[in-house]
Specification:
Layout (H helix, E strand, L loop, with lengths): L7 H27 L14 H7 L4 H4 L14 H8 L7 H11 L20 H6 L4 H5 L16 H10 L12
Length: 176
């Protein structure tokens, strides 16, 4: 019995289409989804950065104290908010929420706005020590009433910035 080579396309064309579909889903979908803007995070307390930065004159590091010394920038403890809001903002429902959290000794469960995949190890300290301004990745947060993510913060975005800054681009720099 002879092999009929005319039947090969009947096997390989559907197999190739299936492989292409699987590749498109596993590679293309995450890339497309990563570039979609996220809706603003619903915070437990409305925190207008523009008032705290522009009107009061606070800098990022005043509230995000661990950014210069740790991997994460962190969120301020309620105690830190109370330095000002023990008196300031009386009658403001959002400031009243801060005072209530202090009185009941409850942490404020802020929602993260800027999120990277779990397999990425981003260290704020290294970037701050390299002279990178917070606004490079986070945008002009000081002018925002509600913070939103302004950059995709995906691998392409980070690698492009690293190349422009002559920073390391080896995989182990961010993935370990």
């Amino acid at each position: 019995m002879e092999f009929d080579f005319r039947r090969l396309p009947l096997v390989f064309v559907p197999a190739g289409l299936l492989a292409g579909l699987v590749l498109a889903i596993t590679v293309g979908a995450p890339v497309l989804l990563a570039n979609q803007p996220r809706p603003p995070a619903q915070q437990p307390i409305a925190f207008p950065h523009n008032i705290h930065v522009q009107a009061v004159g606070l800098e990022c590091g005043f509230c995000h104290r661990t950014a210069a010394v740790a991997a994460t920038a962190g969120y301020p403890d309620v105690e830190q908010c109370m330095f000002c809001h023990e008196v300031a903002g009386r009658g403001n429902p959002e400031a009243d929420k801060v005072r209530s959290a202090w009185t009941t000794q409850q942490a404020v469960n802020w929602e993260r706005v800027h999120r990277l995949p779990d397999h990425v190890h981003f260290v704020h300290t290294a970037h701050i020590q390299a002279g990178i301004q917070c606004s490079t990745c986070h945008g002009n947060v000081g002018a925002m009433t509600q913070v939103v993510q302004v950059r995709p913060l995906n691998m392409s975005d980070c690698v492009t910035c690293h190349r422009q800054s002559n920073a390391p681009t080896e995989c182990a720099t961010c993935h370990y």
